[in-house]
Amino acid sequence: MSLIKSISGIRGTIGGKTGETLSPVDVVKFTAAYGSILKKAANGAKKITVVVGRDGRISGPMISSLVTATLCALGIDVIDLGPSTTPTVEIAVPLEKADGGIILTASHNPKEWNALKLLNRDGEFISAELGKELLDIAAAENFDFVSVDKLGKIEQNDTYMQKHIDAILAYPLVQKEAIAKKHFKIVVDAINSTGAIFVPALLKALGVENVIVLNREVTGNFAHNPEPLPDHLTELSSVVVKEKADLGIAVDPDVDRLCFVNEDGSMFGEEYTLVAVADYILSQRKGNTVSNMSSTKALKEVTVKHGGAYYPSAVGEVNVVTKMKAVQAVTGGEGNGGIIVPDFHYGRDALIGIALFLSHLANQKGSIKSLRGMYPDYFISKNKIELDQNTDLPAIFARIKEKYSKLPLNDEDGLKIEFDEDWVHLRMSNTEPIIRIYSESDFELKARNIAQKLMQDIKESM
């Protein structure tokens, strides 16, 4: 059983003791802290409104009822989108001129998990500073609830799926006619969550008539591990081949991560979702790109090819967005299949990603497999070292930094070391005594050898 309190939100398992899991008491406490921050900012000058939406998890209705009731008890009005997606809630917040938003989803975590993801008035994740303030307020548990005649109201609103889709269709780089002319046959793995509602509706709006949906019942009983990784997408791969489909699409439960399967059942590669979409966007408009520094260097190569500049950021969506704003990037995201299109909205969005990817594919003469062949083959080796609680991690990083001081280094987020055409990134976990070691090379064995070398260096530095 787990409860993880971080600056970006609260997540945990359902069932167990208060303070050790995402118990009803903890849901109320952290929701009250969030609402209190919004009320403090308004200082009584206006009525506060918060947009709430959830993915298809079993615990979703229960968590939603706790969240909405707590907000009402603070005198805050709620716009309840019901079953939705993370990017849809992000879009709804500014459209509703709301003061914030709460997304009830544990993203790619298994069904026993849920979470409160917290948004500001722009529909973006709250800052680190605001997150720290929220944790302090929650710890103090000194909340001021309103009297009965000042309770907030709940408005049910189920219009935002269509509003999200309409916005995608209106986006200038989405080529609906070109997509429709291709008569794509597509298999979708909806992982028993809200993607089963939103993705087929989007494809139909784009003119894709032949859609096969796997795991389409929105039950929250995920048919497989919900993280869209190759080992979890064997059913999707086999059905793509069996049905002679043009491609497969997989999303995570809250529809902010996206990956594709080629017509032969092979993986397009989640790292290359962003690469392909960025290639398309940059072919239409010049500009810069951003991804976190644990993502493939293929994005940098594509960006430079189009005359733009690439910038790395610290890991985490809020850090990617901050860097994108600073360098005025035209697109960016994370190598886990998270695509951010800033003039659409500053958040990972699998739905706009699908539309842009299909627009790109529709302009190619060949198949999705041939499109993947346009990009280099790099391999990222992902490893970790578990340490004792009393390990001096900063000292270890300092010694590694000194050893490789003659090479290009970036210590914005842990330590990234560049070796000619290869790189390795060392990061300290925010929640557990672990160092993560990611390395990339054009050969799998070489990437693994780089990671093993740094793991040995770490052990020698302890």
TrEMBL record:
The species this protein was found in: Niabella drilacis (strain DSM 25811 / CCM 8410 / CCUG 62505 / LMG 26954 / E90)
Family per similarity comment: Belongs to the phosphohexose mutase family.
Family matches, as NCBIfam families: Arch_GlmM
A cellular component term, taken from the record's GO annotations: cytosol
InterPro entries (alphabetical): A-D-PHexomutase_a/b/a-I, A-D-PHexomutase_a/b/a-I/II/III, A-D-PHexomutase_a/b/a-II, A-D-PHexomutase_a/b/a-III, A-D-PHexomutase_C, A-D-PHexomutase_C_sf, A-D-PHexomutase_CS, Alpha-D-phosphohexomutase_SF
Domain Alpha-D-phosphohexomutase alpha/beta/alpha: 8-142, 164-265, 272-375
Listed cofactors: Mg(2+)
Name of the protein described by the UniProt record: Phosphomannomutase
Keyword terms, alphabetized: Isomerase, Magnesium, Metal-binding, Phosphoprotein
Transmembrane segments: none
PANTHER family, sorted: PHOSPHOGLUCOMUTASE (ALPHA-D-GLUCOSE-1,6-BISPHOSPHATE-DEPENDENT), PHOSPHOHEXOSE MUTASE
A biological process term (GO) from this entry: peptidoglycan biosynthetic process
GO-annotated molecular function: magnesium ion binding; phosphoglucosamine mutase activity; phosphomannomutase activity
Residue ranges of every copy of the Alpha-D-phosphohexomutase C-terminal domain listed in the record: 394-454
PROSITE patterns membership: PGM_PMM
